Amino acid sequence: MQNVVILGSTGSIGENTLDVIARHPDRYRVLALTCHRNTELLLRQVRAFSPRYVVVTDAAAAAGARRKLLALSPGIEVLEGLPGLCEVAAHPDADAVMAAIVGAAGLEPTLAAVVAGKRVLLANKESLVMSGPLFMRAVRDHGATLLPIDSEHNAIFQCMPPGYRGGLDGHGVARILLTASGGPFRLHSRAELELVTPAQAVAHPNWSMGQKISVDSATLMNKGLELIEACYLFDTTADRVEVVVHPQSIIHSMVEYIDGSVLAQLGNPDMRTPIAYGLAWPARIAAGVPSLDIIAAARLDFAAPDVERFPCLRLARTACEAGGTASAVLNAANEVAVEAFLAGRIGFLAIAELIERVMLRCESFEPVDIAAVKAADAEARAEARQLLQAVSA
Ligand SMILES: NC(=O)c1ccc[n+]([C@@H]2O[C@H](COP(=O)([O-])OP(=O)(O)OC[C@H]3O[C@@H](n4cnc5c(N)ncnc54)[C@H](OP(=O)(O)O)[C@@H]3O)[C@@H](O)[C@H]2O)c1
After folding, report:
1. Among 222, 220, 256, 221, residue whose Cα is nearest residue 241
2. Which ligand 1 atom is the nearest neighbour of the CA of 150?
3. The sheet that has 77-80: what strands, in order across it?
4. How far is the CA of 97 from the centre of ligand 1 (A)?
5. What are 343-391's pLDDT values in tens digits?
6. pTM of the predicted structure, to 2 decimals
7. Could you report the per-residue pLDDT of 292-305, keeping only the tens digit for each?
8. Which of 327, 103, 150 is nearest to 224 (CA)?
């Protein structure tokens, strides 16, 4: 029986994780659930899974929900804020931690789980993008087990040889082919992209996801963040990772070996597959995912991405090659820009423009610790907000 902590249980990944766990009550018990503000859903999850701990990070939401949570589950401990997240992430009774908070807010709790040497199921790509070398060093130093949950990285991991220990050359791997659906606007002209609304951007054709990652998928920033994530996870450089647009999202990524073999992982686009893989690895468990009807799928298309229409991918590659804090700056500027787009303050094309301007203003440096990463993140957010103010003035 494994005790599981779900950071961000009220999100899309959190809900999918609970769906898989509910299918295996003999293998998994929920130790802790966390949300930011959505305490209504948290209450429903508490009723269904009876965790020992819950964390609500927003202070007002925590104050509003405490009484209801205690009435529902008298023995439950209700924790608050970042300290509460770090406490459950590093809890001595936790066997596995699903890191599914969205954005930079996930950095410290995910690292707390890593430093406590947990089995960490990494969905929160932003934490790795921000602090790559420091994060991966902490994984090694503290003996944590890091399992990628992003479907692409999970697919790459599955295509690596048995006993995979990191890197490409030692395993005969030539390169990684990172697939991308291309998002809902794959065929839009620049003029059409100019008119894209937030409601259109959050409606992904193949995947049902949270708002932020849906916008990232539409701009191809998600693929850019994943390119950086792949470089850190598989200890390689951006020139060994090729992004391939594959609109059907049936192949979730590929690994090419030096003998010319290309291994791919296929499946229906359903996050329960990588989540189940992360929970049970190296075993396999049922995930509730329908069998892939390859005959109905009929064809698999591939194309090169267009970085002229989708410059976020180019910006991410530039940040990845620059190293240091460049990726943290890219990530922070993107979070501010996506928030502004969702609030109707800027247009779709202005997302990349804002990020590029912030990257030009913030000089990259080699961060010595997480405090330095957070400082770079804060500087980039401040620059982005200043530029936004100038736009609205
Ligand atoms: N969704 C996918 O299919 C998918 C696939 C691959 C990777 N990922 C990655 O997984 C992560 C989660 O994505 P998602 O789509 O599940 O996001 P989501 O649906 O927006 O859920 C985000 C979760 O984080 C919580 N949260 C938000 N802001 C927070 C804060 N400041 N402090 C603490 N918790 C906070 C939310 O709580 P409330 O509900 O209370 O706001 C919610 O539980 C992202 O990093 C994403 O890139 C997602």
Report:
1. 256
2. 6
3. 77-80, 53-56, 28-35, 2-7, 96-99, 119-122, 145-148
4. 14
5. 999 999 999 999 999 999 999 999 999 999 999 999 999 999 999 998 7
6. 0.97
7. 999 999 899 999 99
8. 327
